Amino acid sequence: MPNHYVTGSAIRRLREKRRLTQAQLAAALSVSDKTVSKWETARGCPTQAALRVGGG
Known about the structure:
Mean pLDDT: 85
Radius of gyration: 10 Å
Structural class: mainly alpha
Helix content: 55-70%
Strand content: under 5%
Number of strands: 0
């Protein structure tokens, strides 16, 4: 089982390092900014497909 806290904090840290807003990251991954917010606050977890798109 993934650790949602680590995943969310890692997403936020990487997003901020690249100076992206949640909306900009969401657009790049074809998800809503609300979805990115849920990932970062451990109320949701990204799918493997979203991680593959974001990892490239």
